[in-house]
Design brief:
Distance between the termini: 6 Å
Helix content: 25-40%
Number of strands: 5
Strand order of the largest sheet: 3-2-4-1-5
Shape: globular
Strand content: 15-25%
Order of helices and strands: EHEEEHHE
Number of helices: 3
Structural class: alpha+beta
Length: 111
C-alpha cells in the first residue's frame, strides 16, 4: 500500500492520521474511515472504499495508492470531487494521478 505524501484529510483526522494509517496498513479494524484511492483499472477517475474492506485477507493491498481519508462517505465523495475538479481546471481532464504528480511530485510512502 502506498500513502500519498500530501494526503487530503477530512475534518477531525489530522490528529489521528498516523494511528489510522498504521492500523489500516496492518489490517486492523478501523470502522468509520473511508479511503480515496487512485484507480486500479483504466477509465476510472477515483475509488472510494471503506477501510474495513481491507480487512479481507485476499484484498490486494500492493496496488493501492491512498490519496485521501475521511470519516464519512459523503466527506470522501467531497474530497474526490474536489481533486477531480482541480485536475480538470489545471490539466483539462480528470486524470487525478497526473495532476497530483505535477502538483507535488508524487511524494509517497510505502507501508
Amino acid at each position: 500500500m502506498v500513502w500519498y505524501g500530501h494526503m487530503v484529510l477530512g475534518r477531525g483526522l489530522a490528529s489521528k492520521e498516523k494511528m489510522i494509517r498504521y492500523r489500516i496498513s496492518h489490517r486492523k479494524a478501523h470502522v468509520g474511515v473511508w479511503l480515496v484511492i487512485l484507480p486500479r483499472f483504466e477509465h476510472q477517475v477515483l475509488e472510494i472504499i471503506p477501510s474495513t474492506l481491507l480487512l479481507q485477507e485476499n484484498y490486494p493491498l500492493d496496488d493501492l495508492t491512498v490519496i485521501g481519508m475521511a470519516l464519512t462517505r459523503k466527506e470522501a465523495v467531497d474530497i474526490a470531487a474536489e481533486l477531480a475538479a482541480a485536475a480538470v481546471i489545471k490539466r483539462g481532464d480528470a486524470d487525478v494521478a497526473a495532476y497530483l504528480g505535477s502538483t507535488h511530485e508524487r511524494e509517497m510512502s510505502r507501508e
